[in-house]
Amino acid sequence: MSTFILEIGSEELPARFLPGERKALQAACSEALDAASLQHGEITVLTTPRRCTLFIYELSPVQDTK
Fold it and tell me: With contact defined as beta carbons under 8 Å apart, do 16 and 34 qualify?
């Protein structure tokens, strides 16, 4: 298991959009990992007006073979 980090840079976003961005990215990532049968731990999203960073802890390097 390892930690995956994704950092996305953007133009300046209004601060009022950041909470929605965090929730949407976290939910979309969780759904995509579950659909791909990849086990994972906590998903954390940190945002600033110019940057969004996604952390996926304890991410399995291979898919489950169900």
Answer: no
